[in-house]
Design a protein that fits this description.
Helix content is 87%, strand content 0%. By secondary structure, the protein is mostly helical.
Length: 89
């Protein structure tokens, strides 16, 4: 039962990732593209966590934490660039 639920969840997250990729490429404005990229990070983290549950390995959870940290810092940097035009003041 758990393997079926994991497979369905992974498939839905892959679908969400592909739809976000479409928004990233064809987004009408720059803030839409930034949000799509941020959502792609979150979906990637969810896929890694689900794969870690499927494989029963703690290594994937650590990788997901690192990707979450990098995603947060890059989102803040891009948001500062979009709003102010400069990352470092």
């Amino acid at each position: 039962m758990l393997s079926t639920a994991l497979s369905i969840a992974m498939g839905l997250f892959v679908l969400a990732w592909v739809l976000n990729l479409g928004r990233l490429i064809f987004g009408p404005s720059l803030p839409d593209r930034v949000l799509a990229l941020d959502t792609m990070y979150i979906n990637s983290i969810a896929l890694i966590v689900l794969y870690g549950i499927q494989q029963s390995s703690k290594m994937y959870f650590e990788a997901a934490m690192l990707i979450a940290l990098i995603g947060f810092v890059s989102t803040v940097a891009v948001a500062k660039y979009v709003t102010r035009g400069d990352i470092i003041e």
